[in-house]
Write a structure and sequence with these properties.
The chain has ten helices and 13 strands. It is α/β, with parallel strands linked by helices. The protein folds into two domains: 123 residues, Periplasmic binding protein-like II (D-Maltodextrin-Binding Protein, domain 2, 3-Layer(aba) Sandwich); 104 residues, D-Maltodextrin-Binding Protein, domain 2 (3-Layer(aba) Sandwich), CATH 3.40.190. It is globular and about 65 Å long.
């Protein structure tokens, strides 16, 4: 009995020792693997909504620069000026890149939202483009002029028309100008208010149109062919820089901060200056 018992115990100890040799290797490998995983760069993915031109193109150029910093950028192309903001509010987007601060502030006011800017990237000069009239000096009395129909961009269009002497605005109107602020309209201009993305298509039906830079590019227009363009050192340039916008909860997100740094960096500046021929102007 005692001898049989000792034999059984000895057998169990030997089996356990053999099993222990195998199990010791597995945890060691697992530990090494885990250590290797921890030492590798951690990848973060950010999803940014953007208009197709030029915003998505600029973001695509930034992708490899961000990848080198461990950040994967997903670009969601959106053609309107509402869903990029609602996407951030609802959480389907981490940020967006398509708007300037006055538009963002107006959107927040109208929608009870609190989106914030975390950096300005570029400026798109508004231009006056020829429709039925090819020279501003020949603009007829009662001319039909197409302008954007949202508050901030219509004000910008009116400021450009005033810059060219086609009308005079109330001196206090500034970036909040509306058609009601026109105090002199010597050409008796009639205004056709349209969604910004419809302005290029409207050119054959109007004398001239004042068009956002990005929609002009998308429509195949060149700023060099515009009848007039906002001054790069004027009120518009300092006010209407296109920004990265996000929610207050993400305004200090490190990946989004890095996105802004890359977009404001020398590589993206060189890309913008080389590609857009003055239709898009880097702000840094």
């Amino acid at each position: 009995m005692k001898k049989g018992f000792l034999t059984a115990v000895f057998s169990l100890v030997a089996t356990a020792a053999l099993a222990g040799c195998g199990s010791a290797a597995a945890p060691a490998a697992a530990t090494a693997q885990a250590a290797g995983t921890e030492s590798a760069p951690q990848s973060t993915t950010i999803k940014v909504g953007a208009n197709i031109t030029p915003h998505s193109e600029i973001l695509e150029e930034a992708k490899p620069l961000l990848a080198a910093k461990g950040i994967t950028l997903e670009v969601v192309q959106l053609e309107d000026s509402v869903t990029p903001n609602t996407g951030v509010i609802e959480g389907s987007l981490d940020a967006n890149y398509f708007q300037h601060v006055p538009y963002l502030e107006q959107f927040n006011l109208e929608n009870g939202s609190d989106l914030v800017s975390i950096g300005a990237i570029h400026y798109e000069p508004f231009g006056i483009y020829a429709g039925q009239t090819t020279d501003l000096a020949d603009l007829p009395d009662g001319a039909l002029v197409a302008v954007p129909n949202n508050v901030t961009n219509e004000a910008r269009a009116l400021l450009l028309l005033a810059q060219e002497g086609l009308l005079v605005l109330n001196e206090d109107a500034g970036i909040n100008a509306t058609i009601g602020d026109i105090v002199e309209n010597p050409k008796n201009i009639e205004f056709k208010e349209l969604a910004p993305e419809q302005l290029v298509q409207a050119l054959p039906d109007v004398n001239i149109a004042v068009i956002n830079g990005n929609y002009a590019i998308e429509g195949g227009l060149h700023v060099s062919n515009a009848l007039a363009v906002e001054a790069n050192d004027g009120l518009a340039a300092t006010t209407y820089g296109n920004i990265i916008a996000t929610s207050p909860a993400k305004q200090n997100d490190e990946a989004l901060k890095t996105l802004v740094e890359v977009l404001q960096g020398p590589e993206i500046k060189a890309f913008i200056e080389g590609k857009y021929d003055g239709a898009v102007v880097p702000l840094n």
